[in-house]
Amino acid sequence: MAKKRKAPAERSYARLTRHERSSIERMLDRGKGAREIARELGRSPSTVANEVARHRFVTAPRSMYGEPAPADLSGACGRLQSWPRCCNGCKHRRGYGCGRRPRVFYSARMAQAAADAELRESRRGIDETEASVAAKLSTIRSCLARGLSPQQVAALHPELGLSASTVYRWVDAGYAEMTNLDLRRKVGYKKRSRSAPRRRTAHSARRSHGEFGRLPEDVRASAWEMDTVEGRQGDSARLLTLYHRPTSFQLAIPVADGTCASALAGLGLVRDALGEDGVRRVFRLVATDNGSEFSDEAAIAALLGEREGETRLYYCDPMRPDQKGGCEKNHEELRKLLPKGRGISFDRLARADAALVMSQVNSEPRGKLGFQTPSAMLLAVFGGDARALMDAFGVQELGRDELDLTPGCVERARTERGEAPLAG
Length: 424
Known about the structure:
Blueprint: H1 18-29, H2 34-41, H3 45-54, E1 56-60, E2 103-106, H4 108-122, H5 130-145, H6 150-156, H7 164-173, H8 184-187, H9 209-213, H10 217-221, E3 224-230, E4 238-244, E5 250-255, H11 260-282, E6 286-288, H12 297-303, E7 313-315, H13 325-337, H14 351-362, H15 374-382, H16 384-392, H17 407-416
Helix pairs in contact: 1-4, 2-3, 6-7, 11-16, 15-16
């Protein structure tokens, strides 16, 4: 018994599939009529007729190959002006007996490609009212101008109802005159310069990174990472940075120069803020750079509250910044406000400037924290000790509308205090 096909009236509307278009091409080549093809597919005759008329392409003359057939075909072969509206099934198709132009064929492959392109084009643009789109674009522009990433825009403004990929797509499309130049990370990379390796800092074997790697993974994950950040060429002042792996919180303490004495002075401020017991509670494990500024391992260990029989301080291997990758990566956040190549002098950097930079960077929501802020996470982990540390260095928790991750943030604050710009 032949399988009963669904009548066209019983079928809900759906786009023609590639298989159905292949069937149309095959039956056209056999000289079948629109109604016969429609019965075979379970479609209406008008659907078949419109499909062939809409998606027929020129094969001759050669200069028009692949172009849609023109709407006006008066004077052309009669097959093109009424069913089948194409040369499929014509006895002259494979030979040289037909000199009529244009020659027009229905191809399932080309029809499918054209239909897919039409569908993509119909989904372009933004399906919202003009006022709604204008408000959303205004918010996005404002956030990008303050140095926020598309991920942070989406997380801080859930009322927009946009994903980070949508923000990227709108910027890339040029809506509201935005360009990829507004995305700092997308255009901010340059080839890394290579400098001569520095002299390795001597330290006890028990403080090597190999010994650090033998600690349990959960212990290593709770460590702090320590390094320094240099200013422009010729500056002596630096920033001593301490980065907490679990919370992404980073201290940035101005120190006079790159000597060990200055690094010890910066750590002394941390010790003063927390006291011996507080330092022991907070800084249980520290992985530091191998530079000469950290060469006095005994003095640093003492400031971290290390006692006899325990090891709290470990040194990374020379030329291995990846061993303290969290700290290095978070320096990019500091550089948003204190960028290289702008003539910013660290010798002019005041405690108030460092406090503002830390407040901004540690109030920046992070994807790895579920878009919570490093400040909030540090307070959740260390409670009163975290509050004492933040208060001692002037780190404040800022709201989303107070975030400004651009160099202008620091310069405006200096102007309000009546101080000279950092740059220049």
